[in-house]
Amino acid sequence: MMMPKNEKELSEYVAQAKGPLMIRGGGTRGIDVAGDVLKTTGLNGIDLYEPGALTVVVKAGTPLREIEETLAAEGQRLAFEPMDCRGLLGVKGEPTIGGVVAGNISGPRRIQVGAARDFTLGVRFVDGHGTIVKNGGRVMKNVTGYDLVKLMAGSWGTLGVLSEVSLKVLPIAETEATLRIHGLGAQDAVAAMAAALGSPNDVSGAAHVPQGGGTTMIRVEGFEGSVAYRIGQLRETLGKFGGELTTSQTSAADWAALRDVDNFHDKDGDVWRVSVKPSDGPAVIAAGEAMDAQMDWAGGLVWLRTGAGEDLRRKLAGIAGHATLVRGTGVPRFQAETKGVAALSAGLRQRFDPKGIFNVGLMTA
Q: 126: which strand partners?
């Protein structure tokens, strides 16, 4: 195993590599491909934090927990709410910020503020030549190489090894509250979530768990008086959908559990993450015939727990979207790209990883 302690060592390791490398941060994302392990946790530390500028610059191997604690001490947070996969995958270790950005890991608040890539202002990484590449900056208005910053977010370590990321952060809301609607079916839940998002009440979370008769969750955040007013307005807006309306007393914990898909922990079977247009969320649940399900992003993100070895993509044929195998074996982790996208991806890999050594086969198997 290789564990560089600085960017120069990382560059040298990559330049000298003769075969495939498995890029690993905290080892909490379920990445398992052939190759020598290149571990990034030696690239650790917060290089710059400017609370007044809402900006933090950190080395890629820095534990997510350390960053969140540092931000919380100043009343700030990573607004895109990154998921913790450890309970779902049954693994240990510490999630790193490089893994979060490389996977574009984004939670329930994405429907309001955007994804991890939208908060990534700049990156430093080592490409397949061993060259250190810097792109972007520390302020949102810096658009130099803007597309390259976005390209690295969600590339899963197949185009380069991140060494440093610059992120925009936001203040922690004074308070939050969650309106729960009990007893709705999937179709009515999607309609209710759409109505909530279409209202002027600045919703920051919209999810539905079908089990137990169905629970639909609508979250609002902000100043205490504003939150109370908006919850009242949402009660009036959503009352027409029927069901029992309650206000959760454990809002933050509820959303952390939903973000980390706690419903699936310690249960057997495969786990799938399906991204579709929100109106297709109920169709995914119906077609998937899963043992467990939940919808986030107002129906646009569907989690399913299926029998081991099932090819869910065949069941979902005809529904536009992407199905990713998060836990399980037997089928490729990522959905096959269309011919045009595959050609574009191949061209990018040839440019950034000409030796074909980074996480080989992860996104193309």
A: 132, 161
Quickly count: other Cβ atoms within 10 Å of residue 196's Cβ. 26
From residue 127, alpha-carbon distances to 150, 174, 358 in Å are: 15, 42, 9
Q: Which residue has the tokens 């250190």?
A: 132
∠ CA 142-146-150, nearest 5°, is: 130
> What's the CA gap between 167 and 290, in Å, rounded?
37
Which CATH architecture fits 175-259?
A: 2-Layer Sandwich (3.30)
> What's the burial of 332, exposed, middle or buried (CB within 10 Å: 0-12/13-18/19+)?
middle
How far, in Å, CA of 362 to CA of 6, rounded? 26
**pLDDT value at 145 more than 70:** no
Is there a shared CATH topology between the 175-259 domain and the 262-327 domain?
A: yes
User: Between 3.30.9.10, 3.40.50.720, 3.30.465.10, 3.40.50.10810, what CATH number should domain 7-171+344-352 receive?
Assistant: 3.30.465.10
Residues, the chain, total?
365
State how beta strands 46-50 and 55-59 pair.
antiparallel
Q: Give residue-wise pLDDT tens across range 67-125.
A: 999 999 999 999 999 999 999 999 999 999 999 999 999 999 999 999 999 999 999 99
pTM beyond 0.70: yes
CATH topology of domain 262-327: Alpha-Beta Plaits (3.30.70)
For the chain, the domains span 7-171+344-352, 175-259, 262-327
- Output the pLDDT for position 138: 57
CA distances from 298 to 275, 287, 342, 347 (A): 11, 18, 29, 35
Backbone angles phi, psi at 22, to 5 degrees: -100, 115
User: Measured in whole angstroms, how far is the alpha carbon of residue 351 from the centre of its chain?
Assistant: 26
Say which amino acid occupies 181: I
> Residue 89: which residues within 8 A CB-CB, separation 6 or more?
28, 29, 30, 326, 327
The rounded radius of gyration (Å) of the Cα atoms in the chain is: 21
Structure tokens at 283: 């169709």
Residue pair 78/68 in contact (Cβ under 8 Å)? The answer is yes
Helix axes 186-198, 224-238, angle to 10 degrees: 130
Q: Report d(CA 116, CA 80) in Å as an integer.
A: 6
